[in-house]
C-alpha cells in the first residue's frame, strides 16, 4: 500500500548573489575609502621609517659633535698647558741669558787683564812697580832698580813683549816675586786678582851676603822675562 505522502526531492537552493556579485554590488565610495586608507597607512609607515632614520642620523651626528667638542676642549687645555710651559721656558731662557751675559762679562774682564789686547807697555811697567812697592811696604828689603823693554815679537796668534829687570831683595821677597810670576795667566775666578801672563826666559841670582851686623842682605837678581798679549784684529 502506497503511502499518501510521497518523498519530494527538493533541488538545492542556489544563492541569489555570489561573492563576486556581492563585491560588485559594494558602493564605489567604499572602495575609494579603502584605497585611501591603504595609501595613508603606507605613507604613515614611510614617515615613521624616515623619522627613525632621521632620528638615528641626528643622534649619530649629536654623538659625533659631543666627541669633537670634547676633543676641542682637551686640545684647548693642552694648548693652555703648552702656553704655560713655553712662558716658563722663556723666563728660564731669559734668566739663563742674563747669567751667561754676566759670566761672559766677568770672564772677558779677566781675559783682558791676563792676555790684554796689544802690548800695553805702560800697564806692564805699572804692574811691576806696584808689586815692588807692595813687597817693600809690607815686607821690606825689596828694591826695584830698572826695567828695559825690548823689541816685541809677533807670533801667529799672539804677541810677546820681552823685557829685562834687576831687583835686590830678601830671599823671601824673591820667592814672593816668583810666586807672582807663577800665578800670572791664571784665569780662575777664585783668586783675588789676575795678573798678565808672563814667564822667565833667563835668570841670574847673586847672593849679596851679610851686612856688618851679620844680617843677610838677600840676593841680586837679573831677569829676562816675556809678557804676552793678544794681537789686535785687522
Short description:
This protein folds into two domains: 16-114; 121-230, Ribosomal protein S6/Translation elongation factor EF1B (Alpha-Beta Plaits, 2-Layer Sandwich). Helices cover 53% and strands 19% of the residues. The chain has helices at residues 19-24, 28-114, 121-139, 171-183; strands spanning 142-149, 153-154, 158-169, 198-207, 219-230.
List its salient traits.
single chain, 234 residues, alpha+beta, Alpha-Beta Plaits, 2 domains, 19% strand
What would you note in describing this structure?
With 234 residues, the protein is of the alpha+beta class. It folds into two domains: 16-114; 121-230, Ribosomal protein S6/Translation elongation factor EF1B (Alpha-Beta Plaits). It is built from four helices and five strands. It has helices at 19-24, 28-114, 121-139, 171-183, and strands at 142-149, 153-154, 158-169, 198-207, 219-230. Strands 1, 2, 3, 4 and 5 form a five-stranded antiparallel sheet that branches. A hairpin with a 3-residue loop joins strand 2 and strand 3. The radius of gyration is 60 Å and the shape is rod-shaped. The termini are far apart. The mean pLDDT is 81.
Q: Main beta sheet: strand number and arrangement?
A: 5 strands, antiparallel
State the assembly state of the protein chains. single chain
- Strand portion: 15-25%
Mean pLDDT over the residues: 81
Tally of strands: 5
- The CATH architecture of the largest domain can be given as 2-Layer Sandwich
| Measured distance between first and last alpha carbons | 171 Å
CATH topology of the largest domain, anyone? Alpha-Beta Plaits
Query: What is the assigned CATH homologous superfamily of the largest domain?
Result: Ribosomal protein S6/Translation elongation factor EF1B
Unreliable stretches covering 5 or more consecutive residues: none
Number of domains: 2
Helix content: 40-55%
Amino acid at each position: 500500500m502506497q503511502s499518501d505522502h510521497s518523498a519530494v526531492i527538493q533541488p538545492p537552493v542556489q544563492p541569489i548573489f555570489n561573492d563576486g556579485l556581492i563585491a560588485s554590488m559594494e558602493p564605489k565610495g567604499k572602495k575609494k575609502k579603502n584605497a585611501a586608507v591603504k595609501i595613508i597607512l603606507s605613507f604613515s609607515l614611510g614617515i615613521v621609517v624616515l623619522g627613525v632614520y632621521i632620528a638615528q642620523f641626528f643622534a649619530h651626528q649629536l654623538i659625533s659633535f659631543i666627541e669633537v667638542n670634547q676633543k676641542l676642549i682637551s686640545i684647548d687645555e693642552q694648548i693652555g698647558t703648552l702656553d704655560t710651559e713655553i712662558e716658563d721656558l722663556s723666563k728660564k731662557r731669559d734668566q739663563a741669558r742674563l747669567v751667561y751675559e754676566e759670566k761672559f762679562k766677568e770672564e772677558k774682564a779677566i781675559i783682558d787683564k791676563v792676555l790684554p789686547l796689544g802690548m800695553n807697555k805702560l800697564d806692564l811697567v805699572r804692574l811691576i812697580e806696584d808689586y815692588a812697592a807692595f813687597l817693600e811696604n809690607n815686607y821690606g828689603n825689596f828694591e826695584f832698580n830698572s826695567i828695559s823693554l825690548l823689541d816685541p815679537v809677533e807670533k801667529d796668534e799672539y804677541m810677546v813683549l820681552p823685557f829685562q829687570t834687576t831687583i835686590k831683595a830678601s830671599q823671601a821677597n824673591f820667592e814672593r816675586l816668583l810666586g807672582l810670576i807663577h800665578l800670572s795667566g791664571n784665569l780662575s775666578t777664585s783668586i783675588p786678582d789676575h795678573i798678565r801672563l808672563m814667564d822667565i826666559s833667563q835668570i841670574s841670582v847673586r847672593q849679596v851676603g851679610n851686612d856688618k851686623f851679620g844680617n843677610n842682605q838677600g840676593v841680586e837678581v837679573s831677569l829676562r822675562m816675556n809678557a804676552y798679549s793678544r794681537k789686535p784684529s785687522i
